[in-house]
Amino acid sequence: MIGRDKERSCYQMTPSTYEAYSIQVLGYVADLTPVNAEYIATMSVQRMMKRYSPEQIFLKWNAGEGATRCRKDVNSNGTPYDSCSYVHKAMKNYKQLTLN
After folding, report:
1. Which of 6, 24, 61, 97 would suit a FRET pair with 49, their CA atoms being 20 to 30 Å apart?
2. Domain range for 69
3. Cα of 98 vs its chain's centroid, Å
């Protein structure tokens, strides 16, 4: 599955994000396979959990690691985004999962 901004895998990572996370986790850019995407996403989130709250992790996953606040806008490719809504929905799901 490829998104409007060339996001790939069930984690919807853009090519540049996948490459950066792959290098951080493995030390090189691994082929984008379902197994590699799963491992790289898992390890990347575990790394973030050492520094950020769940809300901050959801924001950074959606808007980029440099994001410090949520925004609603249209990106340079013309794709609308709403990181505020993404974080709100993700936190709702997170709270339901952690309470059960």
Report:
1. 6
2. 53-100
3. 20
Pair 34, 58 in one domain:
no
> From CA 99, how far away is CA 82, in angstroms rounded?
26
Q: Which of 67, 51, 62 is nearest to 90 (CA)?
A: 62
Q: What are phi and psi of 80, to 5 degrees?
A: -70, 145
Rg of the chain's alpha carbons, rounded to an integer? 14
Same domain, yes or no: 45 and 1:
yes
Q: How far is CA 46 from CA 1, 25, 29, 53, 85, in A?
A: 25, 11, 19, 11, 23
List pLDDT tens digits, range 40-68: 999 999 999 999 999 999 999 888 888 88
pLDDT tens digits for range 8-30: 665 678 888 899 999 999 999 99
Q: pTM of the full predicted structure?
A: 0.82
Both tokens of 30, joined, read 């691994």
Q: Report the run of H or E that residue 72 belongs to, with start and end.
A: strand 72-74
